[in-house]
4-deoxy-L-threo-5-hexosulose-uronate ketol-isomerase
Amino acid sequence: MTHSEFRYAHHPDDVKKYTTEDLRREFLINDLFQEGQIKLVYTMYDRLIVGGAMPTDKALKLETIDELKAENFLDRREIGIINVGGKGKVTIDGTVYELNNKEALYIGKGNKDVTFESVDGEQAYFYINSAPAHHSYPTKKITKNEAEIVELGDSKYANRRTINKLLVNSVLETCQLQMGMTELHEGSVWNTMPSHTHTRRMEAYFYFDLEEGQSVSHFMGQPQETRHIFLKNRDAVISPEWSIHSGVGTSNYTFIWGMAGENMDYGDMDAVKTDELK
């Protein structure tokens, strides 16, 4: 079963007037994983789709949704998948790819049948990002050992972190989708700080590996007009191209970043000095 929602894009001047309830309704994606379902949120920010698949006792098929006006989900799209749970497998037109925890899979445009399964009695949680595609690139699995690894931050500033660039153009070819995973070291709680914006592409964040009872405050908005949203474990948030995207947790955690837009240069960002944020 596939369930889909639709989200509009927003002008930053409008967001300045939003209440907490407004911000959460428009940008927060919670309850992403529901037993025996695929949940998809189609956003007008670069038409990125954010989703989650939670197969239990049977396989879940990725079905097309009304917003795509396509016979198959991947007729004009590419998709990135990262397993944030137990062992699972994804079957693509008869070819099986096993995904362990924190392993990624890229599926190119034109593939038709995609199914998700949990295996060996474990519970897989498949986190999904999908973007429009103009070309068909090969399907490829990427493990953490195959990722491009970057170490950033300093324990002095509570932002020491390991960035795993999984589905990025320095590792494999995609049309526009870029995905990676940032792991905060124990004792560090700040991510993407100092912060930045990049008007050439939007972003979505998915937070997990967060201890029960803890939370993350995700910061968004223009650098001089910031807002925040509190998130729980396995919550996601949409980040507009005009917005910073940073966060601080009450403990360390891991998050997945996914991007779509005009270019795929990871270093293309407009830095914001920490003491200039408002």
